[in-house]
Amino acid sequence: MFDWIASFLEGGGPWGIAALMFLENVFPPIPSELIMPLAGYNAARGVASFWVSVAAGAAGSLAGAYLWYMIGVAYGPVRLRRLIARHGRWLTMTEAQLDRAQGWFDRHGRSVVFFGRFVPTVRTLISVPAGLARMFLPRFLLFSGLGSLIWTMALAAAGYWLQDRYDRVDAWLNPVSTAVVVLLAAAYLWRVMRWRPDS
C-alpha cells in the first residue's frame, strides 16, 4: 500500500494528491495520515512544492466533503430514512443512529464541521447531516475548508520534517498501511453482521 501511494503521488503530482484526498473523503480506502506525509516528504526532496501539495490536498478533501454535503441536500431526511430502512444493513446505519447524528449536528453545528475534519471516518460522515440540515453552503465550505487546510498542512509538515528519516520507516509503514486497510474492511463486515434494525 505504501509503495503504491508513493508511486502514485510521484507520478500524479498535485492532481494525484487531490485525487487521493478526494477518494479518502468519499470512501476512506486510504488514510490521509499516509497521503499527506508522503506529499510533504516529496516536497522535502524537491520533487514537489510544499504549498502546492498542501493546497492540492485541502482542495481534494474539500471536494469530497462537498460531495457528501450535496448528497445530504439531494436526498433529504425523508428519502434518506427510506434508504436506511431498505439498505440499513449495508450502510451499517439505523434510523436511531441517524437521529443521534442529526441531534449532535443540531447542537454543535459549525464546530462539528470544523473539528470533524481532524477525525478519521467522521470527516467523511459529518457532511451528510450538514447537507440534511441545509447548512448555509458558504459557511459549510468555510469551516470544512479551514479544517481541511490545517489538517493537510500539519500532516505534510510532519513528512517534510522527517525528510531522510522517512526511508527508515518505509520498511514497517508498508505492512502497517496494508493492515489498516484490511482492518477497515474487517470492521465494515463486522458491522454488517452485527447490524440490528432497532439499534
**Largest beta-sheet characterization:** none
Residue share in helix: over 70%
For the terminal residues, how far apart are their CA atoms?
35 Å
Number of strands: 0
Describe the model:
The chain has helices at residues 2-26, 32-44, 50-91, 95-115, 122-125, 127-132, 137-162, 166-194. It is built from eight helices and no strands. Helix 2 runs antiparallel to helix 3 (50-91) and helix 2 (32-44) crosses helix 7. The chain has one domain. The mean pLDDT is 80. The chain is globular and about 50 Å long. The chain is an all-alpha fold. 32% of the residues are buried.
Labels describing this entry:
199 residues, mainly alpha, 8 helices, 0% strand
Topology:
Layout: H1 2-26, H2 32-44, H3 50-91, H4 95-115, H5 122-125, H6 127-132, H7 137-162, H8 166-194
Helix pairs in contact: 1-2, 1-3, 2-3, 2-7, 3-7, 4-7
Short synopsis of the structure:
By secondary structure, the protein is mainly α. It has helices at residues 2-26, 32-44, 50-91, 95-115, 122-125, 127-132, 137-162, 166-194. It has one domain (2-194).
